[in-house]
N-acetylglucosamine-6-phosphate deacetylase (Isoptericola dokdonensis DS-3), 424 residues
Amino acid sequence: MSVDPGASAEPSGSPAAPQVFAVRGDVVTPDDVVTDAAVVVADDRIVWVGPLQDAVAAGLGDVVAATPEPVPGTLVLPGLVDLHDHGGGGTGFPDVVTREAAMTAVLEHRRHGTTTMLASLVTADPDTLVERTALLAGLADDGEIAGIHAEGPFLSPARRGAHDPDLLQRGDVTLVRRLVEAGRGHLRTMTVAPDVEGVSGPGGVAAALVQARVVPSLGHTDATTEVAEQFVREVVDALSASAPGLRMTATHLFNAMRPLHHRDGGPVAACLAAAARGELVVELVGDEVHLDPAVVRSVIGTVGADQVLLVTDAMAAAGMSDGAYELGSMSVTVEDGVARVADPGHAEGGPIAGGTAHLVDVVRATVAAGVPLVDAVRCASWVPAGVLGLADVGGLVAGRRADVVVTDAGLRVERVLRGGAEVV
Ligand SMILES: [Zn+2]
């Protein structure tokens, strides 16, 4: 056997042993709350989850014994997954022009337990949307975000919410293609209104999105029940034919939609029926501002946790104090934590302009509304990961990335791990 004289003198033997440690408390798995349990992490992976007494039999007695006893009531949650988030910490994704500014918003949410997120844009002129998408795609390349959510610009002027009416437009497949290209595979979802010309039907925006494996999310719409029903059917069929593994969503059900009335059901009736059939997953901004907590409880009770995404719809003011902020081209005033379009014409301000909560706050509010903890957490982790087909995150399950959130009994965050590393 010859020896290559150029070979470097690498130390022989096995690579460095993985760093193995446990996190203890009442562990929230996708299906259960396991009291007095442990999550064992090796490097960036979860390697074991179970009740303490089983750890010894699993050969992990030493690892668990080396972990301090948790305070009673300590909860161990999966890292949360937010599919609708415009920013926080003073910066919003629709307005960022540097990677650093975008990371400020990402880290604001990560420190509070959101370890996977889409960065959401708002309606803007086409060139701005392309630029922002390209910038955020760089963060997705580096694994800092899971991708991009484009909210607009193909939205109903009648249900525009905080979107700039001058920049809304009818469906334009050319713009979709530009965004897909700028996103380099990271444009994951787009909110579209089926009542806007050019969105549905052959050759429409929704078809182009599905072709590019981007989830069309029904929202900001004035559609009738029938139009919404037809659109859901069209998108669900297209996804199952050419983008298996993705699930259709509705953007913040109830908000920025024609409301449900018993003589005019609007899109909400169609969405609830589709969710009950398992065809659609509906977002709820369960922050106690966008929706009555009783509505959150009722919807989860009606369609089941597997059809509900809890989201923040957060904007730059998340984690910040009241004051003036930007949301794309719109000026927003935050008062008592409620963001509204700055509108001197309205005594109580304009329409709600995004949220100021972190996703764990939404989980806490949902539990306070009477939803079981395991369901509230599932709607903020396992279900959103599933919508995007992300099999590596979203649950405390052996083999997945070690994204772990430790909270006290009141769901206040005490510690966050992402890929096994402490988030500080
Ligand atoms: Zn939004």
